[in-house]
Structures are given as C-alpha cells and as structure tokens.
Design brief:
alpha/beta, Aspartate Aminotransferase, domain 1, Aspartate Aminotransferase, domain 2, 2 domains, seven-stranded mixed β-sheet, four-stranded mixed β-sheet, 15 helices, 14 strands, about 40% helix, about 15% strand, globular, binds (4S)-4,5-diaminopentanoic acid
Length: about 425
C-alpha cells in the first residue's frame, strides 16, 4: 500500500554515490523525518510531481520563492524571452536597475540596493558593511534565527542546524565564532545585558522580524521596538533579514510595517521569482561603503543576472495586483484554523504559529516564542505527521523547524483537502 516510490528510491541510491547525502541542501535529505526523499520531476501552480508520477499539494514552495505558484505562465514567459537574449553579461543592465528602483520604491529605508546571488551572500555583505561603518568587530544574532551558512552566522542558527541538532558547524574557527554573540529571540533583557557586556564592540544586531527558520515564531509586541531602541542606544546598526518575509508578508519590508527603520535589509527568495538571487538594501551612506564607491569589497559573476531579475520583476508585478496579500492571508488563515480544529478534535497537544502565508505546526508544545521552546517540540510526532500527509498527497517541509509556505496558486479546495488530510492523519497519529 501507499504511494509508489520505486523511481525516487533508485535515484536516491544513485545520488548518494555522487552528491553528499544525495542532496544539495541538507533538509532535502529527509533524515529528520526518517524517510528517503522523493525526487521531484516538475512543479506547476500549487503542485509538485515526483519521479514516480505522484502529485502533491505543495507547501514547501521552494522554501519561499514560489509565492505566485510554480511555473506561473507570466514568469515563465519573462524568463523564456530573456533566455533568448543571453543569460548573463558580466556588465551593467537596465533590468537590474529596474529591480533596484522597484525595491527602493517599496522599501522606505532602502536608498540603494546591491544584488547578489543568495540570502547567505546578502547577510555576509551586510555584516561586512556594518563592521566597516562602525569599526567594531562583533555582531549579535538571535538563537534560532538563520542568516545563511557563512562562518560567522552559523552560531546557534536555526534551519538545518536546528533540524540536525547541531548548534554550530565544524570548520568554523573559534576565533570567528567568538565574534558572534547569540541571545534568545524575544528576550530584550538578554539583549540589553549582552550589549552592556560588549559595549563599544558590537557592529550590528541582525534579526528576522518574524523568525521562520526555527519554525515560524512571531516577535512579541515590544520586542522589535525595544530592539531598535537598544541598537540606537548602543550605537549598533540594525540589520533586518527579510530573505523570507520580504515581499511575502507585505509588498516590501515587513519590519517597516512593524514600525522599524532598519539600517540594512536583506532580501532574496521572492524578489528572484524562483531564480537565484539575494539583495542588500539600505541607507545610502552605508551602501556606498561598497566597492567601487568605498573600501568594502564584494563582487559576483552572476550577481544581478538578467534571468533572475526578469523572473523577480514579473513576480513583483503579480504581487502588485490588488487583493494579493489579502488572498494569501485568507487561504493561510483557513489552513491554520482547519489544522487547529483537527488537532483539538484529536486532542493532540500542539500549537500552530502563523504569520501571513508562513505557518508551522509545533507538536507537543502549547506555545512557542523562543528557540528553547521550539527545541522542545515532539519531532517524532512531527515525522509521523509528515509521513501521513505525504501519503495523503500533501508535500510539507521535512523538518519541524521549517515553515510551510502558502502561495497564490493554492485554491480553497487545496486548503480544504489539506485540512481533511491533516484531520485524518492526526486522528491516526495519537
Ligand atoms: N535551510 C533552507 C531553508 N531554510 C533550505 C533550503 C533548501 O533546501 O532548498
């Protein structure tokens, strides 16, 4: 019984011989849920199709970029048109200017934008700018927040590091790790103590305005404003990592809707419409520290490549259509409500954290507002839920600590089918 997996199994057997763990990004190996991964052959709208021909309602959403659904005809057309004009030129283009202008229109604190190839690169670059601007060596991040896999940021990181239970990575020299100070998310007192103890040494505080890499964790009402005040008081820059939240929770930077005025903002995922991209945006005086204007070096062969930029511009155009964010919210709220009801009926202890179209079901927890609470989640119950949902035709991120992503391509019927599946699965899991 169950879905057919023969071809995926054969591909995985081959893959582990040539690719470490068979995957190019650890969470995709599905080790955290104790299964062999399915190999995806194609995706369309709200669905992914695997190598054995099974169709699933997709909530991985390429881990964020697929906000308008997979292979949206307008995005496909834009990329196809561009492909005939060449993939990358190693030279300036009007297209990248159009994307920079659109980002500065949508994000008030962004006066200038540098495009890079990933969120990891954006975070690395922002930190280098912050150190150069302040002549200070240290940075403060929050436990469970993930800002890519550069050396200095893999300290008490979320995402894969949390999924596999490794707080740090091998290969990071202690001298580098010691420049990253980590404090609990949503705990202002701890931040203040840390800044006090390192007075004059902290270049920047980096934060996900809604944490989405330890599962979804919303900021407490006072947390972000307090954090901004502390950054000002201690002379540190504020870097908001909006690689996941930017243009997903609103058109622009979500931190700004929460009243923040970040010095630098990191973007990625949605602004590339599914093609590789990242961006640092912010105050002109900071951005112009970057070469060739200033002394901070950063470069990239494929940075601002026209394929990613066309996909991003077309995706942003779709997101400017009226009612888009309201629709995402309505669908996601129905999903949240339906899953909560199913959990209640089955008397499963769990909580559902949601911010707009980002959602996580934490099993075994009544409330999750810090990474400490997230770590208490019942990952074996999550694994059973994941497996049951997969059998029922629903594709979830294979970790308790990743967000589910709802897209504009999901229909009300997809949401209903997902909720029905969740009701059946949780009733059996207990
Ligand atoms: N850790 C990434 C998401 N937070 C995984 C990305 C991927 O595997 O595609």
């Amino acid at each position: 019984m169950g879905i057919s997996r023969e071809r995926s199994a054969l591909l995985f057997e081959r893959a582990v011989r040539r690719i470490p763990g068979g995957v190019n990004s650890p969470v995709r190996a599905w080790r955290a849920v104790g299964l062999k991964p399915l190999f995806i052959e194609r995706a369309q709208g709200a669905y992914v199709f695997d190598a054995d021909g099974n169709r699933f309602i997709d909530y991985v959403g390429a881990f964020g970029p697929a906000i308008v659904g997979h292979a949206h005809p307008r995005v496909v057309k834009a990329v196809a048109e561009q492909a005939t004009e060449g993939f990358s030129y190693g030279a300036a283009t009007e297209l990248e200017l159009a994307l920079a202008e659109e980002i500065t229109r949508a994000v008030s604190s962004a006066e200038e934008v540098r495009l890079v190839n990933s969120g990891t690169e954006a975070a690395m670059t922002a930190i280098r700018i912050a150190r150069a601007a302040t002549s200070r060596p240290k940075i403060v991040k929050f436990e469970g927040c993930y800002h890519g896999h550069s050396d200095g940021l893999l300290v008490r990181a979320g995402s894969g590091a949390l999924t596999f239970g490794v707080p740090d990575s091998a290969g990071v020299p202690p001298e580098i790790a010691s420049l990253t100070l980590s404090v609990p998310y949503n705990k202002l007192d701890a931040l203040e103590q840390c800044l006090e103890a390192n007075r004059g040494e902290v270049a920047a505080i980096i934060v996900e305005p809604v944490a989405a890499n330890m599962g979804v964790v919303r900021p407490e009402p006072e947390f972000l404003s307090g954090l901004q005040d502390l950054a000002r008081r201690f002379g540190c820059l504020l870097i908001c990592d909006e690689v996941i939240t930017g243009f997903r929770l609103c058109y622009g930077a979500f931190s700004e809707t929460l009243g923040l005025a970040p010095d630098l903002i990191l973007l990625g995922k949605v602004i590339g419409g599914g093609m590789p991209i990242g961006a640092v945006a912010g105050r002109r005086d900071l951005m112009e520290l970057l070469a060739p204007c200033g002394p901070v070096y950063q470069a990239g062969t494929l940075a601002g490549n026209p394929l990613s930029v066309r996909a991003g511009l077309e995706t942003l155009a779709l997101l400017r259509e009226p009612g888009v964010y309201e629709r995402l919210d309505k669908l996601s709220s129905a999903l949240e409500g339906g899953i909560k009801k199913a959990l209640d009926r089955a008397r499963v202890k769990a909580c559902v954290n949601r911010a707009g179209s980002l959602l996580t079901v934490f099993f075994g927890c009544e409330r999750v507002s810090t990474s400490e609470q997230a770590r208490e989640a019942d990952t074996s119950l999550f694994a059973r839920f994941f497996a049951g949902m997969l059998e029922a035709g629903v594709f979830l991120p294979a970790s308790q600590f990743e967000a589910m992503f709802v897209s504009l391509a999901h229909s009300e019927e997809d949401i209903e089918r997902t909720v029905d599946a969740a009701a059946r699965v949780v009733a059996l899991s207990t």
